[in-house]
Design goal:
Largest sheet: none
Distance between the termini: 58 Å
Radius of gyration: 19 Å
Strand content: under 5%
Number of helices: 10
Number of strands: 0
C-alpha cells in the first residue's frame, strides 16, 4: 500500500520560490527576491495568476510615482520625509512583486510568452513614471534629464538581454568585493538609494540623477566595447 507521503502532492514553500529567482544583484537577492518569494507563496495558495502580480506591480508603481510628480509641482521642499518613505517602500514593494510574478510562473508552470511580454511592458511603463518622478523632483537641466531617462533604460534593456542563452557578463567573478561593486547596477539597490535620498535630502536628487547617468553611460560604453570584441572573435 503506498505511503501517505507519496499520495500527498508537494506544496511549494518560500524556499522553493526563492530557489528559482533570477538574481538581479546582491541587494535584490538578499531582500527583493526574498520578499518576492513570500508574495509568490501567498499568491500560489490563493490561486492568483502571475500576470495578476505583474499588474499590481504596475498599478502600485504608477500610484507612487504619480503622487510624487504631483507633489513636485510645489517644489523640492514639498517632498517631505513622508513622501520619501512612500517612494522608498512603494518602489521596493513594486519591485518585489516584479520578482514574485516570475517566481510564481516558474514554480507553478504558468510561464508563457504572453506573460513574459506583459511583464516587460509593465516594467517599461512603471519605470518611465519612476524616472519622471525623479526628474520632476530633481529638476535637472533639460539635457541631463534626457540623458538620465535614456540611461535608465540601459538597465531594462540589459536585463532583458541577460535572459538570452548567449548572454555573457563582462565580469564573471562572483566574489563578494565584485558583487558589492556591482550594486551600482542592482535595480533594487538603485531604487533603494533613490528612495533614501528622497526621504533624507530630496534636494540632492539632482546629484543622484547625475551620478546614475555617469555610471550607466560608462557601463553602456564598456558593454559596447566588450560585446564588439567578442563579436569580432566569434
Amino acid at each position: 500500500m503506498p505511503s501517505t507521503d507519496t499520495l500527498t502532492p508537494h506544496r511549494p514553500g518560500v524556499a522553493d520560490f526563492y530557489a528559482v529567482n533570477r538574481g538581479g544583484g546582491l541587494f535584490s537577492e538578499a531582500l527583493s527576491q526574498r520578499i518576492g518569494a513570500v508574495i509568490a507563496l501567498v499568491a500560489s495558495r490563493t490561486g492568483a495568476k502571475p500576470t495578476t502580480l505583474t499588474l499590481i506591480n504596475l498599478l502600485l508603481g504608477i500610484a507612487v510615482s504619480t503622487v510624487l510628480v504631483l507633489r513636485a509641482q510645489d517644489g523640492t521642499a514639498a517632498i517631505t520625509p513622508v513622501y520619501g518613505l512612500l517612494a522608498l517602500l512603494g518602489w521596493q514593494l513594486a519591485y518585489a512583486l516584479d520578482c514574485a510574478d516570475g517566481q510564481l510562473a516558474r514554480v507553478t508552470g504558468q510561464g508563457s510568452l504572453a506573460g513574459a511580454r506583459i511583464d516587460i511592458l509593465c516594467d517599461v511603463a512603471s519605470q518611465i513614471l519612476l524616472v519622471t518622478a525623479l526628474v520632476a523632483i530633481g529638476r535637472p537641466p533639460l539635457w541631463l534629464g534626457a540623458l538620465f531617462a535614456g540611461s535608465w533604460m540601459v538597465n531594462l534593456v540589459t536585463s532583458v538581454l541577460a535572459t538570452s542563452d548567449k548572454a555573457a557578463s563582462m565580469v564573471t567573478s562572483t566574489s563578494l568585493p565584485v558583487r558589492v561593486v556591482k550594486l551600482v547596477r542592482d535595480y533594487g539597490a538603485v531604487i533603494f538609494v533613490a528612495g533614501l535620498v528622497l526621504t533624507i535630502a530630496p534636494a540632492l536628487t539632482i546629484w543622484f540623477i547625475a551620478a546614475f547617468t555617469v555610471v550607466n553611460f560608462g557601463f553602456l560604453l564598456a558593454s559596447i566595447a566588450f560585446t564588439a570584441r567578442t563579436a569580432y572573435r566569434a
